Amino acid sequence: MSKPATLGELRASGWESRSVKDEIRRNAVTRITVGEPLFPSVLGYEETVFPQLENALLAGHDVIFLGERGQAKTRMIRALVNLLDEWMPIVEGSEINDDPYNPVSAHARSLLEDEGEATPISWIHRSQRYGEKLATPDTSIADLIGEVDPIKVAEGRYLSDELTLHYGLVPRTNRGVFAINELPDLAERIQVGLLNVLEERDVQIRGYKVSLPLDVLLVASANPEDYTNRGRLITPLKDRFGSQVRTHYPLDVETEVAIIRQEALPFEAEGLNVSVPDFMTDVIATISQLARDNAHISQRSGVSVRLSVSNYETLVANAARRTLRSGESDVVPRVCDMEALPASTAGKVEIDTLEDGREGQILDHLIRSAILEVFRERVTPQPLIGVVSGIEDLESIETGEDIVPADYVELLEATPALKAPVQELVGSDAGAAQVASAVEFVLEGLHLSKRLNKDALGARAQYRSR
To answer: Would you say the pTM of this structure is higher than 0.70?
Structure first.
């Protein structure tokens, strides 16, 4: 259906003007009633964060999210736009999305006075009703609220004319959602400028006798330490946020794995078939889980879920590189590919240590601990006794990037006891590349369990009985 093009047609259509918070509340109620999630792309918050956030939206509160990096704060904030109506009418030509029924800018008031019911109406999509600013020390009041436009003054307008104003980000997001990331990084004098926005719902620009009664849902994010301990947020501004929502990292490996599978970029290359065994994905997720409890890693900076995603992508990339060199076509990550993980891990964790060179040891310990933990969870211990006994009859077993999957299949045939744990990991119909991954994992697990010796040089390793 064609949308009303004038104010008169808009009135005749029965359209009603609602505040942005009422609009979000109404659409949130509809979704909650039918059981539709408000934030379908955010995982792990169903029982913790979402109930708090739903309460805040139903109450019509401005919200501040507290959490370390990589906790989906910005994603949730941006997803709030989906709770707005798809289309919204504004006075045509308005810079601040003037409500046709209640215009606030000089341009819109003048147009309605001249045109009356024939005032032209434009429609904007909800994606245009979102504004965002990363708080930086150089952010100014002009950026957020507005400033005199010297070009308009040069064109002949008087300084006292409201039309000489250049509106900032907040007025331009009138009747929408405005977000400020890392709020405590705003200078205190700029924070003061937000007080009226949050409480009186208006802005004042320079010395002008102009007050713009804005309709904005203001949402912010902050690091808990900056917000609560360092005194970087003025108390009156804290007091004006209706709700404070605390986010967190995934509480279990299963959630971390689900996020990895959702967020990791798929590896696609002609002639290659990529398959990542579940136990290898579990190891990647467990590395991040263990890092969040590690005494040598700064927990103030946090260990983002981006670490898991990057490690997963690096693991697959290294497996693909190894496969290309060997002339194979099936890409299946193995333990030997984990030698590549420090490159994607080191930049995402901050290690607290006074000793030089300890970073590599700490990261290596994390990876080995994750392998051992997943090995104990996924492999039944009883058949492993036969595996160790079978390996005693062999001089040694070599693994590494240059060992092709067919060699692991031969090892499996030479060590029948190894079949049970391998099939437990990848099933009885697994291909050679899957078998190779499972064999390396079992051997490494036995070594970390102190049941096999291992001599390693780079990505090449040799296992033998103790």
So the answer is: yes
